[in-house]
User: What shape does this take?
Amino acid sequence: MQEDRYSLPQRVLHWGIAGLVALALAAGILFFAFGFSGLQDTFGGAVTNALYKYHKTAGVLVLGLMLLRVVLRLRLGAPPKLESLTPQERILSTAVQHLLYLALIALPVFGWLATAAGGFPVEFFNW
Assistant: This one.
């Protein structure tokens, strides 16, 4: 018997990743709005450095959790699509889901590469 919803580990990963993305996005908006020097002038050096460190940490966590999510998806599968969906809606919903998975893996990878290319450390908490 196939369930009509994702497994508990898949749901926990979904909401954990969503929360991390929201936090990283909020920090990214601050970086864009203020710039590095603006953040330092407004919040001070310690807060600015912490924002960058935890933004990078969130990216590393999102990457790792998304890889785990893909493995779980391959092993545990997904609930069936609603029968009320047309064939085009089924194709579109699957395509959008796959694009979101791709984006949530690609964005942290590109962030990692950009950070390393700029000569800055990729931080994970205090490591």
Q: What stands out?
A: Helices lie at 8-43, 45-76, 87-117. The chain has a mean pLDDT of 93. DSSP finds three helices and no strands in the chain. The two ends are 45 Å apart (CA to CA).
